[in-house]
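To: structure desk
From: M.T.
Subject: fold request, one chain
Message: Could you run this one when you get a chance? Sequence is below, nothing fancy, just the single chain.
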Amino acid sequence: MLKNRTLIGIVLIILSVALCFGISPLFSRILEQKTTIVRLKQDVPQGAQITGSMLEAVEVGTLNLPTDMQNDPTQILGKYTVAAMFAGDTFTDAKLSDTIDTSDSLLRSLDPSETAMSVTINSLANGLSGKLQQGDIIQIVSVNDDEAEIYDELQYVEVLATTADNGSDDTYSADTVNDTSSDDEEQDLYATVTVILQDRSQALKLAECENSSLHAIFVCRGDEEQKEKLLAAQREILGLDDSTDGTDEATDGETDEAETYEADLPKAITEVEVEDE
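Reply: Done. Structure tokens follow.
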């Protein structure tokens, strides 16, 4: 029994020496390894163009650095931020874009068959509490004489832009990351929503909505495949033919596909403004 304890003690001593003089120095050398990275030195809002004055080069440890981090200034300068970034943030290709979608560029990129039209948002709740973004798919609800209706022509429309009452596009400011205005300052929420229309009948129905209380219902964001399904379903409702053979009648397969789209459509998320009696 005594010999076993002695053997265990000797093994533990050997392991301790190996840890102190072998593994610990190796781990320390790994921690001491340094590299130079490029990062932000100030907060930057969504859609801002990266300039040299926003960047700084710092020396940091190599441990736990992201493998997809972008450190080449030539691949950073002149590009646009996809989302708001903050001081100390590093860059990846996914955080940057070569172009920025402005209302002007989006209008210029419309297909010949597409048009755009704006509609007034009368209150915060009517416009999904200021949360709509370019590219969202929404439904339009018209409330008139205590009756609500979603027109077939406005089942699924794409948001092109949101515009504040001061004429500026989008709900984020070009100069600030987050609005930290005090409560006594009036905040610019968007007053109109511009949507992309695929048919003249949609414009007529949207114009009718101007004479009623209009609500925007959020349906889809970010999922390009689902977005195309929803827009295809809307074209089917409008009787527009997506086929390339020039025929006006849809095949049975296309009809079945449209029915599948309708079955797969997500439940809309709504916000309703409640008025005190």
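Reply (cont.): Residues 2-32 form the longest helix (31 residues). Let me know if you need anything else for the meeting.
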